[in-house]
Structures are given as C-alpha cells and as structure tokens.
Design a protein that fits this description.
Layout: H1 2-10, E1 13-19, E2 25-28, E3 31-34, H2 42-52, H3 56-60, E4 67-74, E5 78-87, E6 90-98, H4 105-108, H5 113-118, E7 123-128, H6 135-149, E8 153-158, E9 171-176, H7 184-191, E10 198-201, H8 207-218, E11 222-227, H9 232-241, H10 248-258, E12 259-269, E13 276-284, H11 287-294, H12 302-308, H13 310-313, H14 318-327, H15 333-339, H16 343-365, E14 413-414, E15 417-418
Parallel strand pairs: 7-11, 7-12, 8-9, 8-10, 10-11
Antiparallel strand pairs: 1-2, 1-6, 2-3, 4-5, 5-6, 12-13, 14-15
Length: 423
Amino acid sequence: MEKIIKAAVDRGASDLHIKAGDVFRARIDGKLVPLTKQALTPEQTRSIAMKFIPNDEDRARIDKIQDYDCSWGAQGIGRFRVNILRQRSSFMIVMRVIPFEVPTFEKLTLPPVLKTIADAERGMILVTGVTGSGKSSTMAAIINHINATKHKHVVTLENPLEFLHRDIQCSITQREIGVDTESFRMGLRAALRQDPDVILIGEMRDSETIDTAMKAAETGHLLISTVHTPDAQSTVMRILAMFPPEEQDVVRVRLAESLYAVVSQRLLPKKDGHGRAVACEVMIVTPTIKELMLDRDRVSEIRDYIADGREQYGMQTFDQHLADLVQSGEVEFEVALAAATKPSDFELKMRTFRRRSTTSRKAVADPIAEPMTGAISLGVSSSAVTGAQPVVPPVVPPVVPPASAKTPESTQTIKGLSTGFDF
C-alpha cells in the first residue's frame, strides 16, 4: 500500500481514492486515473482504514464509523489529510496530499496583492472556492507570510491539522478538532482568551461559528477562514443567508464592518498538460464595496466595482484573471471560457482582443505601402502617371504625402481620402 501511495505522490497526485470493489485511483493534473489493476476487497479496505486511524479507541469502534477525519504521515512518503467513509456498507478512503514544505505566494503564483492583504492588522480574510481549489494552500501561504514578517501569536483550529508551521518570527499554536479541542465553536471561543493576534479557522460551517468569528474581528483580531462559495459576491450573500431573516440586517452591518478581503479560487488545467493554474478573484472591502454590502438592492453590483478597482486597489474578477491566463499562454481559451463567471461577456472581450492583436501584427509585419500604384488611391489612372508625377485631383487635402509614405495596410482609401477604418 505504501509503495502505491509513494508512486502516486511521485507522479504529482493531489488526492488518492481507495474503495472496496475498485482499484487504487489518484487525481493527477485534475484527472482521476487508475494506479493498479486489481480491485480491493472490503476486508483489504477495512485493514487500510484501521492503519490510518490514529488511536485505539476509534479503532475499536471502526465498524460503527460512518464518517471520520484524521491525518496520516509516513517517512519518505509525505503527510495526508484522510477521510474514511462508508458506502454500500463497505469502506472508502480519500486522501489529500499535504506537502511538507509550507507554500509561498510566489510558489502558488498568487496575485501580489495577497501580501498586502496578509499584512492587515484586523478584520476577516475569507478564502473561498469549491472543494479541491487550493484554499488550504492559500491560507497556509498567508500564515507563512505573517510568520516570516511579523512578531505575533497565531492560533489555528483545523480538522485535521494540515500544513505544519514551525515558529519563525511568530509563535504558532495549532489545535486539531477532536484531539486538542472539542469543536470549531468551542476552540474559537477559547482562542479569544489565549492572547491571539491572528486566528485561523479551517472552515466556517454554521451561523454560530460565523458570529463568533465576526466578534473576533470586531475586537481587533485578524481572522482567516474558508467558505465554500464560488466568488466574492456570492460569499457575501451566502453568509447573510445563513442567519434568520430577522437577524440579517444586523449581520449585514457587522459583516460590512468586519470583512477585510475575499479571495476566491479555481484551478484550471494548464495548456501544456502539466499541472494546474490558479485563477483568483480578489475583493478588498473599500468604502464603496462597504456601501454596496449595506444596501441589499446593490449587492449585485459588487462584481463590477471589483473590476473597476483593479488598477487602484489590486482587485480583480475571475474573468479578468482568466483573460490574463489565456493571453500569457498558460490556459486554453476554451478552458477559461468554461470557468468564466460571465461566459458570453468573456468570449466577446477575448475575441475583440484577438482582432486588435491580429490587426496590430499585420501593421507591424508590413508597414510600408507599395509605391508603384500610389496614384491609384489618389483617383488617377495608371496611364497618367507613367513617367510623370502623380496628378492631384481637387478633392485631395492640400497636404499630400509622397507615394513612399508609410500607410497601415489595414487602412483603405475612398476617392483619395483615407477612411481610417478597417473593412
């Protein structure tokens, strides 16, 4: 088993699937591929699950387990986040590879504005995206930046522990749910009494946890967490929807005051077929964004203001970043189009950009107009110019460039007048 897992890690797998009645499978470059030919029996899968469960008490009740989270590591192989589940009355195991090395913003190719976001003193930073979009890696990179540049106490609440941070400039306290504390809610309440500067919550799953998180941000702490939402605008709407209708107006005000930034992610296969590229939407809560959040009828305008704030604040929408990835050659146009928030608008913008690029390349490739028929564009017959200077008709403006002047190939003339338009 360990040889198979090591082989998958060596091939760059991000996840491994072990299921009774099926072969070992691994997700490599976003695709789930088989690693073995022989299917596992229910007894073999149960034995593997027993190996991953860390304590005797849980191993004794394995036949009663329906869902179970833990972490597992082996020297020379790596560390993994493990989920053990029941399906068709037998076991299945899903393992997420956790690198030993804590990632940096540069290694993850995240936008430079994330360094500015990580330098915030207080407020909530939410990293959002679907399962498997790299949220844990981005949060680890934020903590790594703080650890390398600040002198603070960082408390993390995770289920299970993923990246292991060593103390550099900061003191890092990492607590595992079910092992070091009872739940996210209990751990977060306790964290407020542990002199923290930064609190990381692995996931905000309910309104009570979100309420406590907002209290932490309101009392001057920097709080970092994740939400399973596709983009920044839907994150605001999802958080509000988690509270009863009669509380939403108050929550709207609290969220607008405590939220600092939202970073949403999607992973896309690279054009060369090796690895995946991250597409990011970044929203920083500026005074204008705050006004939109407070007005329930204008929340839908948030995405447009994110796009407008790219140059001044470093914000960007998914579609803006997807366009960058296509133009740089990292991602195929069809892949980016499928991932776009507004596919029709994205396609129109990209086709317009391509037309302009094609026109510019043609003008650069052949900037000099042919002089031998220069008189034709001036409305003069070819016989009139044989061995003589071009005759200028009255409709031509007073200043006429010589026949050898540079004229863009794409510019046509009508009755001696340059139209300046492409036909």
